[in-house]
């Protein structure tokens, strides 16, 4: 069940009452030294996946089923990555080649390989104007809408429980000025086709994160970025199920890495969705290319809800834009300068913004209802700070995401008190120092997120067993 705390309109009195209670209990907890946040030893990691995992993130690659017999290729894939996206095998023309006949053979080879290696799988993609089978390209109107929804339902149901994140809808906005929807047969079935697809996907696989994925959405100032932002904002406001935004991030001279990329990641994340860099490739070579890869990694690590990066291929020769040599390994499978920059950025970043355990994949029991309610923006609280939280709960466990916001003055540190129901326990946390595991628990800032300017916010999270807390969190500033 998904719950969101209601902001407690009587929070002033609640805060005073709780603060007293919590301080004394939390002090007891501190005395026995129950500090839950584990600082990852990121600088020990020697592969992209392991280093990203130390940050509570994944580092993935798009792969092709027909290359799984190439030992150099598979060697790199298995060694370096902890997430896989089928490059073409889950597209509509691959999974439903004739209407009503589904073919999962090639996609299954990738999914089975990934699962055998303990890797996540990103599903790509359920609804898209491109790479449609001929039968779908020829359809329109209500029959097409029904066929699209059936496709989403069938494929997401078939892979239910095996997909970390689905690109439910891909590339639905037009390039250029104005931020309009892209014209397509799907768009012509009605402007609500995107939300209809998301609802169908949620019903079919409630445990998968549902993403909207697009390109040329990296530069915060571009109309297309703004248009996608407004759609996600609208979905969150109206309760349309969406959990993540995918930025393809195919960078080249025509679509360069923008200096405001981090701002874009931050702004999407602030809507209450995860942000994933889903198809990264950066054309170029040498130090220039390496430096851009470094910037992208640093930007993602700076945003707690940027929880994964996927490169669109393994070796340059595997790339859909091979002539631009945009990937991390050369044609022979050797590590490029871009690889070294990427790995060192992952390792050099301090236990950065550790989701030390990511909120993304609550363990074995998938949530019966994935997150649909973001932390809402807390109201201004004067001096001091305020906190709101959202919960993704399933039978026997939960993940809570807490948003801390400074009041009308800057603060140098914060502490958030919460009460867990009897029988519940905190099992880990990220981006906060947790004190106490049950009953009254408290979360203090860590080194990089204590200082907040007036009105600024930050997020931390924790995971627990039992029933999720429901009372308003109490924030104390220092
Ligand atoms: C590309 C594949 O890499 C190619 O092999 C295929 O021929 C065409 O599609 N945006 C997307 C991806 O969402 O699905 C595209 O993948 C690249 C652009």
Walk me through this protein's architecture.
By secondary structure, the protein is of the alpha/beta class. It has helices at residues 11-31, 48-54, 71-80, 92-95, 105-116, 134-137, 141-158, 193-204, 223-238, 261-269, 286-301, 337-348, and strands at 2-4, 58-63, 83-86, 120-128, 165-170, 209-214, 244-247, 250-251, 274-282, 306-311, 385-394, 397-406, 414-419, 425-430, 433-435, 440-444, 457-465, 474-477. It binds (3S,4R)-3-hydroxy-2-oxopiperidin-4-yl beta-D-xylopyranoside. (3S,4R)-3-hydroxy-2-oxopiperidin-4-yl beta-D-xylopyranoside (XIL) binds next to loops.
Bound molecules: (3S,4R)-3-hydroxy-2-oxopiperidin-4-yl beta-D-xylopyranoside
Structural class: alpha/beta
Percent range for β-strand residues: 15-25%
Put simply, the count of helices is: 12
Sequence stretches where pLDDT stays below 50 over 5 or more residues: 1-43, 354-381
Order the strands across the largest sheet as they lie in space.
2-3-4-5-6-7-9-10
Strand tally: 18
Q: What is the CA–CA distance across the termini?
A: 35 Å
What level of helicity do the residues show? 25-40%
User: What characterizes the major β-sheet?
Assistant: 8 strands, parallel, barrel
Order of helices and strands: EHHEHEHHEHHEHEHEEHEHEHEEEEEEEE
Rough shape? globular
What's the mean pLDDT score?
Answer: 86
Radius of gyration: 22 Å
């Amino acid at each position: 069940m998904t719950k969101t705390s209601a902001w407690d309109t009587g929070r002033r009195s609640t805060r005073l009452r709780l603060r007293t209670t919590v301080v004394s209990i939390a002090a007891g907890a501190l005395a026995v030294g129950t500090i839950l946040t584990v600082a990852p030893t990121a600088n020990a990691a020697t592969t992209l996946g392991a280093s990203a995992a130390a940050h509570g993130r994944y580092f993935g690659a798009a792969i092709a089923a027909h290359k799984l017999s190439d030992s150099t290729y598979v060697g790199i894939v298995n060694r370096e990555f902890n997430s896989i996206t089928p490059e073409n095998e889950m597209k509509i023309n691959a999974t439903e080649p004739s209407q009503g006949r589904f073919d999962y053979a090639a996609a299954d080879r990738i999914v089975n390989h990934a699962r055998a290696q303990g890797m996540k799988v990103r599903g790509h993609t359920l609804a898209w104007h491109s790479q449609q089978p001929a039968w779908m390209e020829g359809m329109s109107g209500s029959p097409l809408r029904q066929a699209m929804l059936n496709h989403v339902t069938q494929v997401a149901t078939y892979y239910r429980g095996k997909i970390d994140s689905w690109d439910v809808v891909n590339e639905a906005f037009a390039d250029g000025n104005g931020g309009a929807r892209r014209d397509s047969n799907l768009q012509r079935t009605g402007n609500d086709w995107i939300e209809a697809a998301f609802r169908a996907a949620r019903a079919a696989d409630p445990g998968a994160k549902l993403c909207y994925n697009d390109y040329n959405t990296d530069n915060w100032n571009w109309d297309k970025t703004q248009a996608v932002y407004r759609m996600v904002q609208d979905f969150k406001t109206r309760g349309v199920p969406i959990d993540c935004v995918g930025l393809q991030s195919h960078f080249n001279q025509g679509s360069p890495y923008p200096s405001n990329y981090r701002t874009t990641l931050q702004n999407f994340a602030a809507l209450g969705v995860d942000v994933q860099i889903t198809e990264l490739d950066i054309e170029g070579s040498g130090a220039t290319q390496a430096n851009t890869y470094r910037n992208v990694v640093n930007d993602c690590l700076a945003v707690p809800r940027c929880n994964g990066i996927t490169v669109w291929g393994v070796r340059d020769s595997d790339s859909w834009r091979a002539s631009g040599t945009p990937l991390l390994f050369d044609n022979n499978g050797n590590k490029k300068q871009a690889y070294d920059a990427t790995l060192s950025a992952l390792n050099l970043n301090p236990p950065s913004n550790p989701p030390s355990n990511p909120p993304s994949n609550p363990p074995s029991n998938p949530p019966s209802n994935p997150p649909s309610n973001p932390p809402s923006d807390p109201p201004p609280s004067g001096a001091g700070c305020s906190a709101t939280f959202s919960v993704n709960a399933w039978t026997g466990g939960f993940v809570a995401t807490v948003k801390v916001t400074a009041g009308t003055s800057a603060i140098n540190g914060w502490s958030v008190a919460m009460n867990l129901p009897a029988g519940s326990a905190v099992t880990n946390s990220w981006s906060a120092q947790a004190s106490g595991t049950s009953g009254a628990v408290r979360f203090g800032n860590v080194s990089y997120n204590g200082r907040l300017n007036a009105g600024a916010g930050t997020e931390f999270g924790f995971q627990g067993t039992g029933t999720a807390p429901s009372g308003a969190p109490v924030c104390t500033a220092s």
